[in-house]
Amino acid sequence: MKAVWYESIGEAEQVLNYGDLEDPQINDGEVLVKLNTSGVNPSDVKIRAGARGELQFPRIIPHSDGGGIIVEVGEEVSEDRIGERVWIWNGAFGRAFGTCAELIVLPSSQAVAMPENVSFETAACLGIPASTAYYGIFADGPVKDQTILITGGAGAVGYLGIQLAKWSGAHVISTVSGDDKATVAEAAGADLVVNYKTDNVIKAVNDFTKGHGVDRILEVEFGGNLSVSEHVIKNNGVIAAYGSVTEANPSVPFYNLMFKSVKLNTYLIYIVADSDRANINQGINAALSDNALTPIIAKSFQLSETVNAHQSVEEGSIIGNVVINI
Questions:
Q1: Which residues contact 49 (CB under 8 A, 6 or more apart)?
Q2: Fewer beta carbons below 10 Å: N end or C end of the chain?
């Protein structure tokens, strides 16, 4: 099979190889998927660059997300699955060989049958971005008629989070850093978009909610936004945080949050509980069936252009997802 792999960490152009590798062998409980697309997430390029530590395996095929068709099943898997169009999660988490190849073998549960109306490019944006958004919105129950603040609404997770929240009947406020990103968040369905660089976020949120604040925050930058969050979150509200890069070890205003009975839900989407994962997969498919979940495909590359794809993600200027067509 054609594949991209690396055997040392470093710059994309120095360590990524493109060529032929042996086809993977299927085991009991697994499926063999012929891949049509592979999603390139920030975590993929960080791991390849060494930001997450030393090389985990002697040879790595990167990328956790992708879409394709099941072409073979192992023992204990129904042959009815052959021919299914699927999206993949955790393809490269704790595994040597991810989705940046023509074929992948993985446990049957990690290949999710998807609605017929869903493209393979969309499938490559579900495992990390959509799953992170879904868990952050719904992990603590329904959000119908609630008001949710989604920070970074033009990011891959935030954009899908807005769509999911609106699909479920919530009111959505989103923060962004510029006019172009404001347009993106508005297109996703946000009821109010606030430029956190030029506007007073606390005032804007309180004006919109008539001083009541928000029920929930889907938070991309927990530490950096705490000075706002503690003032806009309601009593018994939830801050669901999946990132804190600017302030990796923030000082938490414990008593301010405690006296509001605020729940902090920090999470890493790769290791959520099995029951949560089942809910995520079902919920994403329900939103897809309703045409309520549409990622932005910012750039598409061929498998042989994976170096360029990684570099595009690392530049940090792209609004949307980067996908490799295989």
A1: 9, 10, 11, 12, 314
A2: N
